[in-house]
Specification:
Blueprint: E1 15-19, H1 23-34, E2 38-43, E3 54-57, E4 60-63, H2 72-81, E5 92-94, E6 97-103, E7 111-116, H3 119-130, H4 132-157, H5 164-171, H6 176-180, H7 188-192, H8 199-206, H9 225-231, E8 235-237, H10 242-255, E9 258-261, E10 265-271, E11 274-280, E12 285-287, E13 290-293, E14 324-332, E15 342-346, H11 350-360, E16 369-373, E17 387-395, H12 408-421, E18 433-436, H13 438-444, E19 476-478, H14 489-508
Helix pairs in contact: 1-10, 1-14, 2-14, 3-4, 4-9
């Protein structure tokens, strides 16, 4: 273990409370405990993971949150700094098929297309699907997304939130051409038109904007880097994604962190202008020298943690929220379509879907359907056997002001109809399916409205409006998908590491030091 921090000495270790055992909070707990802090993690749920949760459906546990494991190097770095190896604690299987895509016949010709981990195989499949010119466009797109990723991985993803000028300085004035090629002033949809004439392929790759909770018609072309993140490796987690959260909890405990579940924090205490600890809903108070808040950052200015931290961070306007979702966790048999682990089913009018969500604040008649078939790729699914599925459609993040639950029967009908049009037959009987709407997500993640990705990164400067790990209140730090560097499992882990690094440096009063991270593959 590295030396301690702060001026309290080894006999009086600095006390840090982490609110929330989501991925950002778990990562912060690992780094802080390993560096000598007395860390207590308070989680109001019964288990760790946050959005990485599992629900019961049809008598089986089904992953109900993030389903795509990427950027493995971030997790390997967290374990390595603690003197351990990720592979000893999480069983990962490399995905051969990144995703299977299907279109219903409409204004576009329909069809089916697999995207592979191997670029040559994907190019060949695209050529057979849409022609040689589109295959060449795909190769150009792959190179472009890799270039954007190279420019931003160290300067943005693995660093504290920059201003536009900070980003220029980090990339280097001599590399302005690389920063220029990230094209933040163009929308992702517009930039994709430079590579693909086939509307189906623009849909396929435009969907990467939704990984950040954004519309491809409003998000900057910079988000094309997400395509490289997947191309760099997608892994399936044997036993489900919750195994990742469990592994991080155990790692934190081995470093000395303590966890308390069913512990609802009602207030962040403030004394003499700085964070002093927390008060639980039970009335119990825990003093602390610093607090890491791993929840939706909007909970602070909206007063959900008391009046003391209201000024600590800027509010997220309702109109700036990212996508929410309606999901069904189910254990049912399927017929008619050979599911892979990750599957996407498209209608023909993609613009209508995002116009409905972000402008009209509703769900279009034929929404895109994502299905994670969780038993595919990690084992065999016998014909006719019930299998674990997560079905997801995009929805507006208005769960704090509208009741979406009453719409569930109609939304299920529309969802199943699109799947039927693409060749997949399944049912969602009440006894075998557990739904969650934006209303439910807002209850799980207060102040979010059900938004699953924090603030939407729309426009050329949208990403700079996202909160950082530090706040205006001394001693209070933030981690999780609602703060920099963004949403998604690896980004949330990175946010926790960045928050911990800044907390450590602030407590030590030392010169700023960058957290040591392994270079991405």
């Amino acid at each position: 273990m590295d030396g301690g921090f702060g001026s309290r000495g080894r006999s009086q270790r600095d006390r840090v409370v982490v609110i929330g055992a989501g991925m950002g909070g778990l990562a912060a707990a690992v780094d802080l405990a390993r560096r000598g802090a007395e860390v207590t993690v308070l989680e109001r749920a019964a288990t760790a993971g946050g959005k990485m949760r599992q629900v019961q459906a049809g008598g089986a546990g089904v992953d109900a949150g993030p389903t795509v494991f990427t950027m493995r190097w971030i997790f390997e770095g967290l374990f390595a700094d603690a003197g351990e190896r990720l592979v000893d604690h999480v069983d990962l299987l490399g995905a051969d098929i990144l995703a299977r895509h299907a279109w219903r016949a409409g204004e576009t010709p329909g069809g089916r297309l697999d995207l592979f981990a191997d670029i040559d195989r994907s190019a060949e499949a695209i050529g057979e699907f849409a022609g040689a010119a589109e295959a060449r466009g795909y190769r150009d797109f792959v190179a472009r997304s890799a270039d954007i990723h190279r420019t931003l991985v160290g300067s943005f993803i693995a660093s504290e939130r920059p201003s536009p000028l900070d980003l220029v300085n980090r990339v280097g004035w001599g590399r302005l051409d690389a920063l220029w090629r990230t094209t933040p002033w163009r929308t992702m949809w517009s930039a994709l038109g430079q590579h693909f004439r086939d509307a189906r392929l623009r849909q396929l790759f435009g969907r990467y904007a939704t990984y950040c909770g954004c519309s491809p018609f409003l998000a900057p072309a910079t988000l094309m880097l997400v395509a490289h993140v997947e191309q760099d490796g997608v892994w399936l987690v044997r036993g489900g994604m919750v195994r990742v959260a469990e592994a991080l909890q155990r790692l934190a405990e081995r470093q000395g962190a303590r966890f308390r579940f069913d512990a609802h924090v009602a207030e962040i205490l403030v004394e003499n202008g700085r964070t002093a600890g927390v008060r639980l809903a039970s009335g119990e108070q825990l003093p602390a020298d610093a607090v890491v808040f791993n929840g939706d950052v909007a909970a602070l200015p909206r007063g959900l943690l008391g009046d003391g931290p209201r000024h600590a961070a800027a509010d997220t306007p309702d109109a700036a929220r990212s996508l929410s979702a309606v999901t069904w966790c189910a254990r049912v048999p399927t017929t008619g379509f050979p599911l892979s682990h990750h599957n996407v089913f498209f209608a023909e009018d993609y613009a209508e879907e995002f116009d409905a969500v972000f402008r009209r604040r509703t769900i279009c008649e034929a929404p895109t359907v994502y299905i994670c078939a969780q038993d595919r790729g990690t084992g065999d699914v016998p014909d006719g056997a019930a299998e674990r599925l997560l079905l997801l459609i995009n929805a507006p993040p208005d769960g704090d002001r509208r009741d979406f639950d009453a719409q569930l029967p109609d939304l299920a009908r529309r969802t199943l109809r699109l799947l039927q049009d693409c060749g997949l037959e399944l049912g969602l009987p009440e006894e075998a399916a557990t739904p969650t709407t934006p209303t439910g997500f807002n209850a799980l993640f207060p102040a979010s409205g059900g938004a699953l990705y924090g603030r939407a990164s729309h426009g050329a400067t949208g990403t700079f409006a996202r909160a950082g790990g530090t706040t205006r209140l001394p001693g209070l730090y933030c981690a999780g998908g609602s703060v920099h560097p963004g949403p998604g499992i690896p980004m949330a882990v990175m946010s926790g590491r960045l928050a911990a690094a800044r907390l450590l440096e602030d407590r030590a009063g030392a010169a700023r030091r960058a957290i040591r991270l392994p270079a991405p593959a």
